[in-house]
Each structure stands twice: as structure tokens, then as C-alpha cells.
Amino acid sequence: MIQREIRKAVTGQSFFYNDDETGKPVHVDGCQLIEFNHYYLIWDDYHWLKTLPLGRGTLAERRWVLEIIKSFEKVHKEVVNYIEEQNYKKAEMQAKSKSHG
User: What number of other Cβ atoms are within 10 A of residue 90's Cβ?
Assistant: First the structure.
């Protein structure tokens, strides 16, 4: 099901995901890859360079831009945490195998 929704999302079709807090589906309009890349670049500039498109701070920025940044930041944190957790488990397994070997 997840792969189907991802495929829909990157081809511009609407898709859904389950909200972490409520568990209820959230329906989202899809976007084309070029549009996604544009949103990603907005987030990337904010995340690494701390710049916004209008360059005048969050109060002057459009609401949808701030929502996109929040969404990307949330996903970025989840991915980083997931990678760190996997690396920790891998190191733990290697340490156990060395101690039993």
C-alpha cells in the first residue's frame, strides 16, 4: 500500500498517509517531480542556509512555505533518527558477534 501511495504522489495524483497522532488518513494533493524539487530546494535553503524565499523572516513569509518547511523538517528528523537507530542496532549486533566469536 505504501509503495502505491508513493507512486501516486510522485506522479501528481492525490494520495494519503496515516497521521502519527490520530492514526486517521490524511488526504493530500499530489505534485509532479519538478514541483516537489522546487519545494525541496526551499526547505534545503532554509535547513542549511537559514534563508527563506522572501528573505525577510518567518512573519513576512507565505503560510504555505512555512508549512512545507515544517513538513520537510519533520520528515528529515524522522529519517535521521531512523538511520541512527539502524546504525546503533548494527553496531550492537557486531559487538555481540565479536564477544561471542
Answer: 10
Give phi and psi for 15, each to the nearest 5: -145, 175
Digit-coded pLDDT (tens) for 24-74: 888 878 777 788 889 889 999 999 999 999 988 889 999 999 998 998 898
Distance (Å, rounded) from C-alpha 74 to C-alpha 88?
21
CA distance 89 to 91: 5
How many Å apart are CA 34 and CA 65, to the nearest integer? 16
The CA distance from 81 to 99, in Å, is 27
> Across the chain, where does the E strand assignment appear?
15-18, 25-28
Model confidence, pTM: 0.64
8 A C-beta contact, residue 36 and residue 57? no
Instruction: With CA atoms as reference, report the closest residue to 18 among 43, 39, 40, 1.
Output: 1
